[in-house]
Design goal:
- The structure is a single chain.
- By secondary structure, this protein is of the alpha/beta class.
- β5, α4 (87-95) and β6 (100-103) form a beta-alpha-beta unit.
- It is globular, with a radius of gyration of 16 Å.
- It has helices at residues 33-43, 55-58, 64-73, 87-95, 105-109, 112-121, 157-167, 188-195, 211-219, 230-233, 239-248, and strands at 6-14, 17-22, 25-31, 48-52, 78-81, 100-103, 126-134, 142-146, 151-156, 171-176, 203-204, 225-228.
- It has one domain (6-248): Aldolase class I (TIM Barrel, Alpha-Beta Barrel).
- 52% of the residues are buried.
- Strands 1, 2, 3, 4, 5, 6, 7, 8, 9, 10, 11 and 12 form a twelve-stranded mixed β-sheet that branches.
Length: 257
């Protein structure tokens, strides 16, 4: 039985607004988060990711009040990421309406946190985000970055992905730093390198620009979730046309727009 691929718009948040950059910098405004979330739900999005991109680097907690407004405006699962660093942060996020939380820098700095979170809340609620860039210094060819893609760690992305699964992550969200916002396509080597090593769902992220890129991530990358931001925010690709395109090319997607 084929697995159903999910279409997941990402709301990168800064200063209470949706923003989008290229390679994690040069941000530009993309709209009001509640309006964006509602529009994507109406278009047939399967899930949303709300990512507070400056929370960790600023040393603050995620914007739960704003997140609660977004989660309350839609009836599809919304994942909260950014600034989640403790079990109490996860509990607060779930109380605010999160279906799942995404752990990034905190999981990398203290991997047992993944185990603690999965044990306390269930692995189905724990996603581990892996921001990665290509490198020749590590065996797998990809290095994990933290703090919104700003700080290199010297840790191999593929090894960390497997460790995250072993410690209890229910889903992985690898984002290609070099492809992010470029619209040149997902980093299939990164996505496939992770899907080949783990048995949990993997969401492709970073670089989608054309319909063909989504198909490639599902077919060649093995991704079960297709996350994108700027192509949706700025009208380059619509969710209904994307779902129709994937169906026409043999990819199972959810019933909807």
């Amino acid at each position: 039985m084929k697995k159903t691929v999910k279409i997941i718009p990402c709301l990168d948040m800064q200063g209470g607004r949706v923003v989008k950059g290229i390679k994690f910098v040069n941000l530009r405004d993309a709209g009001d988060p509640v309006s964006c979330a509602s529009a994507y739900r109406d278009q047939g999005a399967d899930e949303l990711v709300f990512l507070d991109i400056s929370a960790t680097s600023s040393g603050r907690k995620p914007m739960l009040e704003m997140f609660s407004e977004v989660a309350g405006a839609v009836d599809i699962p919304v994942t909260l990421g950014g600034g989640v660093g403790s079990l109490s942060d996860i509990e607060a996020a779930l109380d605010a309406g999160a279906a799942k939380v995404s752990l990034g820098s905190a999981a990398l700095r203290h991997p047992p946190f993944i185990e603690e979170a999965a044990k306390e809340f269930g692995r189905e609620k724990i996603t581990v985000a892996i921001d990665a860039d290509s490198t020749q210094k590590l065996p797998g060819g990809y290095e994990v970055y933290i703090e919104g893609g700003r700080v290199p760690t010297g840790i191999d992305a593929f090894e960390f992905a497997k460790q995250a699964e072993d410690r209890g992550a229910g889903m992985l969200l690898p984002t290609s730093k070099k492809n992010d916002g470029t619209k040149d396509g997902y980093d299939i080597a990164l996505t496939k390198g992770i899907t080949d090593r783990v048995g949990i769902p993997v969401i492709a992220s970073g670089g989608a620009g054309e319909l063909e890129h989504f198909l490639e991530a599902a077919e060649k990358g093995g991704a079960e979730g297709l996350l994108a931001a700027s192509v949706f925010h700025f009208g380059r690709v619509s969710i209904p046309e994307l779902k129709n395109y994937l169906r026409e090319n043999g990819i199972e997607v959810s019933v909807g727009s």
